[in-house]
Specification:
Shape: globular
Helix content: over 70%
Largest sheet: none
Number of domains: 1
Structural class: mainly alpha
Strand content: under 5%
Order of helices and strands: HHHHHHHHHH
Length: 272
């Protein structure tokens, strides 16, 4: 009984630290979702007057660098909302390892540094996604709600995403994302710079898993929050659920079939 009493304060401290990490991850994701909801409601209220909103200027209005910068920020916040929850198991494990190292007098690093690296990888993706959006906008292939107006582009994106689900690169990246302990054992680096590098590397693996899935937002509408949530849930299940690999393969079939249907309709309509 005395040993149990002596262990209680330690258990309470561990539980508190774990709760703090959970609260931090959930809080960041929640703030990002609240931003997206606010932005989406603004579109619904004034779809014809979006020039002052990030990336939502009317289709025929040329973008400025300020528009591009705002769109990069929008994508980056969206990636926080969509991807950070699926990284939570690794974030928690990283925090636990550093907590134990701290208790043993070893070198420990703030979990925030690791998270910053992870989100940095998705920030880089956001730069590219905003460029793609700018290109579609300039080509007049994007609706005011940021969905492609071309069934050919939409069908090609669906098929590309579905085929990519079956590639060895996708499988290799997904294996890293589905094994937090394995990642830490093989990729551990010391110090703050090492933690940042680890976060970037894990973000790169997640990017390798999901970049084409994020491209599907141009099919459904970048600010269609129902589909944003569906894609985020698909990513979460694929990465953390016991049957995640099966979920990914089923999604692949659905995406390819959906793309074929859209391309067939485009052919029937005579193109774009």
């Amino acid at each position: 009984m005395s040993a149990r009493r002596e262990g209680d304060p330690i258990a309470a401290l561990v539980g508190r630290d774990r709760a703090l990490v959970w609260a931090g991850v959930a809080g960041l994701a929640l703030v990002a979702w609240l931003y997206l909801v606010r932005l989406s409601r603004g579109m619904a209220i004034a779809p014809e007057g979006m020039a002052g909103m990030p990336g939502m200027s009317p289709v025929l209005v040329p973008w400025t660098l300020a528009d591009y910068g705002a769109t990069v920020a929008m994508w980056a916040i969206m990636m926080v909302a969509m991807m950070l929850p699926s990284a939570a198991p690794l974030v928690l494990l990283f925090a636990a390892v550093n907590r134990k190292r701290r208790e043993e007098g070893g070198l420990a690093v703030s979990t925030g540094v690791f998270v910053l690296g992870y989100l940095g990888a998705w920030g880089a993706f956001s730069v590219g996604a905003a460029l793609a959006q700018w290109g579609l906008h300039t080509a007049a292939l994007l609706s005011p709600f940021m969905a492609t107006t071309s069934p050919i582009v939409a069908g090609a994106l669906l098929i590309a995403a579905g085929v990519y689900q079956l590639t060895p690169l996708k499988a290799a990246c997904l294996a890293k994302c589905r094994s937090p302990l394995g990642f830490l054992l093989t990729e551990w680096r010391e110090g703050a710079a090492g933690a940042l590098r680890m976060g970037l590397r894990h973000g790169a693996y997640c990017l390798g898993c999901c970049w084409l899935l994020m491209g599907l937002l141009f099919v459904t509408g970048v600010m269609n929050l129902v589909w944003v949530a569906v894609i985020a849930l698909f990513v979460l299940l694929e990465k953390v659920a016991p049957g995640g690999v099966v979920v990914g393969r089923a999604g692949s079939v659905a995406l390819i079939l959906g793309g074929i249907v859209l391309l067939g309709r485009a052919a029937g309509m005579g193109g774009m």
